[in-house]
Structure formats: C-alpha cells, structure tokens
Design a protein that fits this description.
Shape: globular
Pfam family, one: adh_short
Bound molecules: NADP nicotinamide-adenine-dinucleotide phosphate
Number of strands: 8
Radius of gyration: 19 Å
InterPro entries: NAD(P)-bd_dom_sf, SDR_fam
Family: Belongs to the short-chain dehydrogenases/reductases (SDR) family.
Number of domains: 1
Transmembrane segments: 28-47, 233-253
Largest sheet: 8 strands, mixed
Order of helices and strands: EHEHEHEHEHEHHHHHEEHH
Distance between the termini: 38 Å
Low-confidence stretches: none
Keywords: Membrane, NADP, Oxidoreductase, Transmembrane, Transmembrane helix
Structural class: alpha/beta
Helix content: 40-55%
Mean pLDDT: 96
Strand order of the largest sheet: 3-2-1-4-5-6-7-8
Length: 318
C-alpha cells in the first residue's frame, strides 16, 4: 500500500496550497481531507449539510493534532466549509463564486462526493440523481474552477469506481434506464455515471494538458455511508449489511486505505502531466486499465458533447 508520509509536506506560513474536496465530511473523503490538512493544505470541504461538515472539521482537527503532536515535518493547514448541494446546479454555481472570491488559484480539486444505487429519481435540474451528483455537477464544478487550476498547473482527481465495468457496452447518457427491478437497473445507472467520470478525465487530459487529470477507484470500502440506502431498508437491510460486511472482510480495505489512491494522485511528485495525464488508478495507488467503454475516446467525446449540450440547454454555458 502507498504510504502518505512519503508525500510532500507544505508549510502554510511559507506557501499557500489550496484543495477542494467534495463530500469531505464522511468516508473516504474524510480521510482525504485529514491527510491534506496534515500536509499543510488550506482545504475547502464542499458539502450539503453545514452541521455534518462542521462536525467533521472538528473531529479532523482533533485527530490531526493527536497524530502530529511530535512530528516536526507537519504544519497543519486550515479547513473551510463550502456549501454545495450537487443535486442542485445553482448551488454549485454559488459555491464556485464563493471560492473565486477567496482564492486566485486552486492546486487540487477532488471530485469525491457520490450517491450509489439509489431508487430512480430526477433532480430539479432534470437529470437522474446518480448521474447529476456523481458526474454532471462535478463536470460543471470542474469547468468553472478550471481557470484556477490552470493558474498553478493544478490537479483534478475524479472518484470513479470498479462498478463502472457494469456498463459493458456504451449507453447514451440521454437514456434514463428507469426500469424494474430497480436493484438491477440502479447499478447500471451508477456504472454509467462512473464511466462518464473516467471519460471526462480522459477528455480533460486531451483538452487541457496543463492540468493533471486522473480518475480513481478507491477500493471496496464497506464502512462508509455509501451503502446506507441498502443497509437502512426495513427488514432486508440487515441482510444487506451482513452481505457488505462479508464482502468487506474478504475483499475490502479500511476507510483510510480507501483514500490512498486519491492522495497519491493528488500529491505524488512521481506523477507528471506529460507521462500520466488521463490515467486511472485503483486501490492503494496502483495504475490500472479501465473498461473498454471508459477507455474508448469516441465514446468519451460523445459523453462530453452530450454533457455540454445538456448544460447549455439549462442555461449553463461552459
Ligand atoms: N465505498 C466504496 O466501496 C467505494 C467503491 C468505489 C468507489 N467509491 C467512490 O468513492 C467516493 C466516496 O465514497 P464513500 O464511500 O466515502 O461514500 P460516503 O461516505 O457516502 O461519502 C459520500 C459523500 O458525498 C456526499 N454527497 C452525497 N450527495 C451529495 C450532494 N447532493 N451534494 C453534496 N454532497 C453529497 C455525502 O454528503 P452527506 O454526508 O451530506 O450525505 C458524503 O460526504 C464516491 O465517489 C464513491 O462512488 C466508493
């Protein structure tokens, strides 16, 4: 496994390094923020619920102080709450404005937030809930923050999933797959959003090579809130909980191990724009090949064009 202690530490009194993490208040995002904070970053925790994010910041501060008490390398950074509900594109626009008011550059953008295997639902912007939360809102956020990333040759990390492989042939994003049983088709919708995320990274790497863009499967991390919809179902929830625990026991990694691939992509000096742009990394920071669909550049271009048109039709010119 990759050791985050080998990554560079920054001193905020010498230089200001900035990062924005969506969904940084729980699961993998929580540990991602903890390590960025310990490495001296000013971290924006982008979330939809102020009390959850503020609580996370408090616990992260205490945890970082405990871990770094006698470590002379560490100069703790700072953390800020940034409100954005990814299921509402107006809210994303407001978050971007807030960041731009405070920062002239952004070193790292980590598009981590997601929902998984939810019942079919359409957001007020008219997208399927998983597609918007996991992909479309991050597309808009990234494009709006691109000038800040370009200013410092920053990095963009997109959390995908091994689950993207469930889209075994290209499905146009305009088709909503609202079929029964939900427990089958919801996974296809999740896979489509996560494939689109990898395709987005590949297109970004071609169009904007000055920013290092990478996608990540963090590992199977069964103790995050991602599985809550299933484990909280009445009666059958306990069955799903047991199933996820068994999968986790044999194939899973801890929440903290789940953030290692992201951290490597965000901070490792061994990765470069010339050699690595557009690549996909998996559990612990190992480079891997995504599915045939996610790797296909014609499909990636179709996904890009579809997204641009859909956003433009809703008044978001990117
Ligand atoms: N866990 C795994 O096994 C696994 C496997 C493959 C890929 N991944 C990917 O890893 C990433 C992190 O997942 P995780 O396991 O750490 O899940 P998690 O604990 O459920 O964290 C998801 C985060 O996304 C936020 N979020 C959800 N909907 C949002 C919205 N509409 N607006 C703003 N924020 C929203 C959540 O905020 P709230 O707290 O407010 O709900 C939470 O902070 C995801 O992209 C996931 O797809 C995870």
């Amino acid at each position: 496994m990759f050791d985050p202690d080998t990554l560079p530490y920054y001193d905020p009194s010498v230089e200001r390094r900035t990062a924005l993490v969506t969904g940084g208040n729980s699961g993998i995002g929580w540990y991602t923020v903890l390590h960025l904070y310990m490495h001296g970053f000013a971290v924006y925790l982008c979330g939809r619920n102020s009390s959850r994010v503020n609580k996370a910041m408090k616990i992260i501060t205490a945890e970082a102080k405990k871990r770094c008490a006698d470590n002379p390398k560490v100069h703790l950074g700072s953390m800020y709450y940034l409100h954005a509900d990814l299921a509402d594109l107006q809210s994303v626009e407001r978050a971007v404005k807030n960041v731009k008011r405070k920062e002239s550059k952004l070193d790292i953008l980590i598009n981590n937030a997601a929902v998984m295997a939810m019942p079919y639902q359409i957001t007020k912007d008219g997208f399927e809930i998983q597609l918007q939360t996991n992909y479309v809102a991050h597309f808009l956020l990234s494009m709006r923050l691109l000038p800040l990333l370009q200013k410092c040759n920053g990095r963009l990390i997109m959390l995908s999933s091994v689950g993207h492989n469930l889209e075994f042939m290209y499905c146009a994003l305009g088709q909503d797959w609202n079929y029964r049983p939900n427990c089958v088709f919801t996974w296809l919708r999740y896979a489509m959003a996560k494939t689109a995320s990898i395709q987005f990274v590949k297109m970004m790497a071609i169009k904007y090579p000055e920013v290092l863009c990478l996608s990540v499967h963090p590992g199977l991390v069964m103790n995050t809130n991602l599985f809550s919809y299933w484990t909280r179902l009445p009666i059958v929830g306990i069955f799903f909980w047991m199933l996820f625990q068994i999968v986790g026991f044999f194939f899973g990694v801890s929440n903290e191990e789940g953030c290692l691939a992201t951290l490597k992509c965000a901070l490792s000096p061994e990765l470069s724009r010339d050699e690595d742009n557009g690549k996909y990394f998996v559990t612990g920071g190992r480079e891997a090949k995504p599915s045939y669909v996610a790797n296909n550049l014609d499909d990636a271009a179709s996904t890009w064009i579809w997204t641009m048109h859909e956003l433009r039709d809703r008044g978001y010119k990117v």
